[in-house]
Amino acid sequence: MVPLQYEGDVYRPPSEAKSLILQATIGCSYNRCTFCSIYKKKKFRVRTLDEIKKEIAFTSGLLPHTRRVFLADGNALVIPTEQLLEILQSLDRFFPNLERVSVYGNTQDLLEKNVAELKMLRKNKLDIIYLGIESGSAKVLMDVKKGVNPHEIAQAAARAKEAEIPLSVTVINGLAGVEGSEEHARETACLLNKMDPEYLGLLSLITVPGTTIHRQFREGKLTPLSPWELLHEIKMIVEGLSLTNCVFRANHASNYLPLKATLPRDKNSLLVELDKVIKKKTPGSLKSELFRGL
Predict the structure, then answer these.
(1) What is the pTM of this model?
(2) Where exactly are the structural domains of the chain?
(3) 3-class SS at 26?
């Protein structure tokens, strides 16, 4: 038996707080986005099946009642389908109470797998893919070196939907600065409507020293949004949304104002709340800068 071995810092979605975290890949296979710093010190690799299976066997002895597993690191969906299936089947074999397995993925990963492959993964309890689209604007996506365009993102989402794998999509507010805020909001809402995700999370940009985007803001090439401008950008996105049935969250640690809703049911009340806060600008109504990101 081999104990769990994590390499470097391991990140997970907030909703996976109670899940078993299994590091199936190290780092991010793309790792070129201008705003991201979290995998820069890691050289990407896919861990061997032998390594992963030994950790699954070991952990099953410690946590036999595990119901949820999150496969880290940055985009474990990049793992070849045959190998990923073996991991899922091993998890199901060792954890009799297993309900779901989740994973970070990117657009490129989804487009590398056909619908038949995704359906097979879904059949083996891959039950949610966390997909960071960041923006629906072609310009913004190009500026932040995301490596894909809105059409490709919509294609990838359609593939996941056909395979009946729920998507949890994240967007970054403030990514385009003041200069591109309106386009960022408008085009993001447009893309989200095409994707119609089951879950949607809005994060607010926190620039990290050493990243390209931090340098762009520091040099004045982009102007940061104030907290109130960030809320206005969120409002513009919500105004443009026409989703079927989506759990909406903007309660990440980076956000100044925690927001929760189910769309479209709560759209009007969400807009009323945002409008009220933006108009009043009450001191102390937003999270202090000191506590963002914590």
Answers:
(1) 0.95
(2) 14-284
(3) strand
